[in-house]
Design a protein that fits this description.
The protein is an alpha+beta fold and about 140 residues long. It has six helices and three strands; from the N terminus they run ααβββαααα.
Length: about 140
């Protein structure tokens, strides 16, 4: 079955989702990321890895890797686009609804992909904050 038929007819993906599935932005591995987080959804088998490069508490670059469906790829792509240039605090406020809205909506059956991208971002930010707390505890020589 052609991809177009599956995406457009059966799942009714928006044009934004289809475009980001076919031409994802920020996909790949990052050299020297500040933090990398991986999340997975055992229910559907989707996995996502997100890497952030953070300088002076600002996200200067974001990349993702996805093992999953078209919606998973599109949500990873849009989240990396939405957080680049934002402070960590601003990125942390990103909501699942904002992720879905930026894609023009997602079929209810695929909302778990927005949740996965959201959780991966939150985990990366949490790990970044944890690294900073641990770094502050180190004795300065």
């Amino acid at each position: 079955m052609p991809v177009e038929y599956t995406e457009r007819s059966l799942l009714k993906y928006t044009q934004q989702v289809i475009e980001l599935f076919r031409n994802p932005k920020n996909v790949g591995e990052m050299e020297n990321p500040t933090v990398t987080a991986t999340e997975g959804d055992a229910q559907c088998g989707d996995m996502m890895q997100m890497s952030l490069k953070i300088e002076n508490d600002k996200i200067v670059d974001a990349k993702f890797l996805s093992f999953g469906c078209a919606a998973n790829i599109a949500t990873g792509s849009i989240v990396t686009e939405l957080v680049k240039g934002k402070t960590v605090d601003e990125a942390e406020k990103l909501s699942i609804k904002e992720i879905s809205s930026a894609l023009g909506g997602l079929p209810a059956l695929k909302m778990h992909c927005a949740v996965l991208a959201y959780k991966t971002l939150k985990k990366a930010i949490q790990e970044y904050r944890q690294k900073n707390v641990e770094g502050e505890k180190q004795p300065h020589t």
